[in-house]
Amino acid sequence: MLEYQVQANALKNKVILVTGAGSGIGREAALQYAQAGASVILLGRTTNKLEQVYDAIVAAGGPEPAIVPLDMEGASEQNYQDLAATIEEQFGHLDGVLFNASVLGALTPFDQMELEMFQQVMQVNVTAQFLLTKALLPVLRKAPQGSIVYTSSGVGRQGRAFWGVYAISKFATEGMMQTLADELAGSNVRANCINPGATRTKMRATAFPAEDPQTLRTAEDLMPLYLYLMSDDSAEVNGQSLDAQPDRIPGASVSR
Ligand code: NDP
């Protein structure tokens, strides 16, 4: 695990958007960004889950978050541009965005992948991230240091049988990050990927129903890397795909 200890208030006065903030890894990242002093914009498709995260942040004494109920499967380019305009109006700039929301789709042999499912996964995991990145770049450039963090996967670096469109979408995520990071080099905005590694969440349980979740690290365990990439300590890090669990063997269910 990354031995990074966030300073108290390291994210004070920062504004950070988290997609898929209602559950799993995104929920934990939102809570910890707020705990480190950030105003967090909670984006997700299930309003009551976002409200629960909002309540937890306020109860812990964090800065008041904002809630953006949005389904990334159906949202239009205009929806993302409106969101960027609202962020600019309310906060003036955006310091960071964690692209965390994703769907798994069906794990099937390649020739059984349905076009409809392929398009749905690509829409949420790739096209929506492209549109939101494009809309947010101007407000990110207004921050002293802007950080874009995408979420990859082991199957986004090495293809694996039956991981279908999810794997393809994660390769696309790595490609989007690399292309953008190369353009951003030398600017005040950076882009990187995190590969969380096997983590105790609903998505992991869906992909590996027979696995004992107690053998897995929790979202909380991964947070040093999530905090590092949003803090100014990583201002010089650009174009990297980093592992939240570097000691883990890809594909294995139990960490070394
Ligand atoms: P979860 O399925 O537990 O959470 C995913 C989040 O994304 C949920 O909050 C979900 O909302 C949201 N979401 C899904 N579809 C949409 C949509 N159409 N619009 C808006 N929000 C949406 O996943 P994890 O926390 O496990 O995964 C987080 C990230 O980490 C993903 O990118 C995943 O691919 C990646 N990852 C996870 C690993 C793991 O072992 N858990 C391993 C490698 C990568 P709702 O709660 O409403 O469903």
Backbone shape: globular
Percent of residues in helices: 40-55%
CATH top level label:
Alpha Beta
* Strand-residue proportion: 5-15%
Number of helices: 7
This entry's quaternary arrangement is single chain
What count of domains describes the coordinates? 1
Family: Belongs to the short-chain dehydrogenases/reductases (SDR) family.
Keywords: Oxidoreductase
InterPro entries: NAD(P)-bd_dom_sf, Sc_DH/Rdtase_CS, SDR_fam
Protein name: NAD(P)-dependent dehydrogenase, short-chain alcohol dehydrogenase family
Secondary structure blueprint with pairings:
Blueprint: E1 15-19, H1 24-35, E2 39-44, H2 47-59, E3 66-69, H3 77-91, E4 96-99, H4 115-141, E5 146-151, H5 164-184, E6 189-195, H6 202-207, H7 219-230, E7 241-243
Parallel strand pairs: 1-2, 1-4, 2-3, 4-5, 5-6, 6-7
The structure holds NADPH dihydro-nicotinamide-adenine-dinucleotide phosphate.
NADPH dihydro-nicotinamide-adenine-dinucleotide phosphate binds next to helix 1 and helix 6.
Family: Belongs to the short-chain dehydrogenases/reductases (SDR) family.
Protein name: NAD(P)-dependent dehydrogenase, short-chain alcohol dehydrogenase family
GO molecular function: oxidoreductase activity
